[in-house]
Structures are given as C-alpha cells and as structure tokens.
Amino acid sequence: MNKFHGTGVALVTPFNADGTVDYDGLRKLINHLIEGEVEYLVSLGTTGEASTLNKEEKKKIWEFTAEVNNGRLPLVAGIGGNDTAEVVNSIKTFDVDGYDAILSASPYYNKPTQEGIYQHYKAISENSSLPIFIYNVPGRTASNISPETTCRLATDFKNIIGTKEASGSFDQFNQIMRDKPSDFLLISGDDPIAMPMISIGAVGVISVIGNALPKQLSDLIRLSLKGEFATALPKHLSLIEFTRMMFAEGNPAGVKAALKHLGVCDDHVRLPLVKVSEELRKAIIAETNTISS
Question: Any idea which UniProt keywords this protein has (predicted)?
Fold first, then answer.
C-alpha cells in the first residue's frame, strides 16, 4: 500500500500556559498517534496553528517531530502561504531529513485566478526536492482550486502527487477522479466525508479528529479502503457528533479540549484563537468518554 494511503493526522501544536511550545506534550501526541496505528503524520498544517508560529519555532518543531518519530511513520511538512517567493524560499531551505512530502495550501487572502494558482504550484514544484500535496481549502483561503487546475498540475508536474481536498464538493471530487492521472492521490481534507469520498476513489484522509481518536478513525478508514462499507458505516456514524463538536467553536480548540481530557496535552491555543466554552468542553468530555469506552 502507498505510504499515503489511509489515515494521516494533522498534528496540533501543544502549548504551555505561557504560550511557549510544549515539547513534552508534542512527544506524547506523536507516540499517542503511532500507538493508535495511523499511517502518517502531518506537521504544521492548519491544525498546528502554523500561522501563529515564527520561523524559528517552526524549524524546531519540524526537527523535534522528526527526531521523536524516528522513521516510524512517514512525515509530511505543511509549508504554505500567500507570498509565492517566500513559500519557495521556505521549501528550498527546509531540512528534509526525516520527511517524505510537503503539503502546501493554496494561497489565501490574495484570491488568485486559476492561472495564478497554477503558476504558484509550478514554482513550488520546480524548487522542491520532496513530493508535493496540493491543499484545497476554500473555506479558509477564499478561493477554490478548480478540478481543471488540479488535474492540470497533476499532469504537468510528476512531483505533485496528490491533493488534500477540503472543498466539500462531490461534484469537484467526481471530476478530479475522472480526469486525474491514475497515480495521483485524492485525499479527504474533511473528517465527516472521508468514508463517502473513499467510496468514489479517495485513498484516505488527513484528519483533525485523529489527534484524539487515532485508533477509532484509522480502523474506520482501513475498513473503507477494503470496501467493507457495511462494517465501516456504524463506526462512521458513531463519530459524527464528536466531529461536529471538534469544529463547533473552531479548530483546533475542540480537539485540544479532547486531548486534555485524554491526558495527552493541554488545551492552550494562541490568540486570536481561544479555548472552547465550558459548556462545549463538558459535552466534548462526555462524548469522548462514550466513544473511548
């Protein structure tokens, strides 16, 4: 099986009460996920609050994650932004030791045209020594990567090996599956639709909820990839309410509340994010207990 088939988890970045990075918590999280039998890890994606980390912090987190992982699972680094030249420079200077690929979100805020998005990823492709995953998340970037642009990139650049699709559009997923090269990977960027996406050919998920429930989610994804949807469906349905809670007051505040309850790491986030409300925290604890029992 391809190393990126199955469950990837977009790691949260644990923080101490004073806002510094909690490396002990990060170590516990990485081991928690490996013990939960996920297939690969993604360091400093959106869930990792990368936008609030400076260059030195990112560098140290990437190095620490590779050290703790110690080759046990494939590692993906999240390197994106809305300044193409800066993203290219970050990729060219990135220490690839211990890493297997780069996940790069489409430029946010600028709202580039499809040609601008194509040229952005072209520049990344031409300057990366690692394979690249496109990340389409229009709810955050305010622009969508069209299926035509995705498949054009997949065809033109062999080191662009897949896309994390978080558009929520099955019309878009269908077009990508129909028109992409056979070896190009479609990966769900949304936990609640991972199973139905797999039914049309997606190869797995890059997950948020997997931080807290790696075993439950990875079991569901493996069953789905085997085509055992009747067995997978009850597992899928059992996670719906938990998943809804994870995003009710923003990501990663929800999943950090669950991780604190599980004793993996604390629930501190960096402004402008804040912790979940007390009411939601209690609901998350109750639902976590129900699923984990």
Answer: Amino-acid biosynthesis, Cytoplasm, Diaminopimelate biosynthesis, Lyase, Lysine biosynthesis, Schiff base
Is residue 189 situated within a structural domain? yes
Q: Is 23 a catalytic residue?
A: no
pLDDT single digits (tens) 168-185: 999 999 999 999 999 999
Which SS3 state, helix, strand or coil, does residue 129 take? coil
- Residue 270, in any domain of the structure: no
Helix (H, G, I), strand (E, B) or coil at 78: strand
* 135 tagged catalytic: yes
Residue from 40, 118, 121, 135 carrying the catalytic annotation: 135
Q: Within 13 A of 127's CA, how many CA atoms are on the CB side?
A: 19
Q: What CATH number has the domain bearing residue 33?
A: 3.20.20.70
Under a CB-based contact definition with an 8 Å cutoff, are residues 265 and 22 in contact?
A: yes
Q: Output the pLDDT for position 1.
A: 52
Q: Which residues make up each annotated binding site?
A: 47, 206
pLDDT on residue 102:
98
Q: Please report, in range form, the residues annotated as the binding site for pyruvate.
A: 47, 206
Q: Which residue has the tokens 């004793």?
A: 263
Is 281 domain-assigned? no
Mean pLDDT, the chain, whole residue set: 97
- For 190-239, how does the pLDDT look when each residue is reduced to its tens digit (9 = 90+)? 999 999 999 999 999 999 999 999 999 999 999 999 999 999 999 999 99
The residues, any chain, with a CB within 8 Å of residue 150's CB and separated by 6 or more, are: 134, 136, 163, 176, 180
User: pTM above 0.90?
Assistant: yes
Boundaries of domain holding 173: 6-226
Tell me whether residue 284 is in a domain. Answer: no
Catalytic residue among 28, 164, 180, 275: 164
- Rounded to whole angstroms, how far apart are CA atoms 104 and 32? 25
What total number of domains does the chain contain? 1
